[in-house]
Amino acid sequence: MNKTELIAIISENTGVAKKDAEQVLNAAIDAITAAMVNGDKVQLSGFGTFESKQREARVGRNPHTKEAIEIPATRVPAFKASKVLRDAVAK
Fold first, then answer.
1. Per-residue pLDDT band at 40 (split at 50, 70, 90)
2. Run of H or E including 18
3. More exposed terminus of the chain, fewer Cβ within 10 Å: N or C?
4. Which of the 8 DSSP states describes residue 2?
5. In terms of DSSP bridges, do strands 48-55 and 58-61 run parallel, antiparallel, or are they unpaired?
6. Chain segment 64-77, per-residue pLDDT in tens
7. Pairing of strands 48-55, 68-71
8. Portion of the chain with pLDDT greater than 70, in percent
9. Which long-range contacts does 29-36 make (Cβ < 8 Å, 24+ apart)?
10. Are 40 and 9 within 8 A, CB to CB?
11. Spatial CA neighbour of 56 closest among 37, 78, 71
12. Mean pLDDT over all residues of the chain?
């Protein structure tokens, strides 16, 4: 499923126009992104938790030359599914 298909499903299930459903979905994605950029967690009960995690600096290897490469520390997005979602998918 892609974003367009998700918008269509939201529109059908809620009875709102596709344009309005798209605006709501975009606003939700923007709010989650902004919270993660600020280092906050976004917890959606029954769905999961979005957060940003710090990945430490480490030494990697170039697979072609086997040369050591310093990989800098960075923040990465993470999602942890709730038990309700994990159980629903497992069925």
1. very high
2. helix 18-37
3. C
4. -
5. unpaired
6. 999 999 999 999 99
7. unpaired
8. 100
9. 36/77
10. no
11. 71
12. 96
Q: Is 67 helix (H, G, I), strand (E, B) or coil?
A: coil
Q: How large is the C-alpha radius of gyration of the chain?
A: 19
pLDDT tier, 60 (very low <50, low <70, confident <90, very high otherwise) = very high
Q: Write down how long the chain is.
A: 91
Beta bridge partners of 76: 53
Question: How far apart (Å, rounded) are the C-alpha atoms in residues 11 and 43?
Answer: 24
Separation between Cα atoms, residue 10 and residue 82, nearest integer Å: 21
Amino acid at 31: A
Backbone angles phi, psi at 64, to 5 degrees: -80, -45
pLDDT-derived band at 63, boundaries 50, 70, 90: very high
Residue position matching structure tokens 């906050």: 40
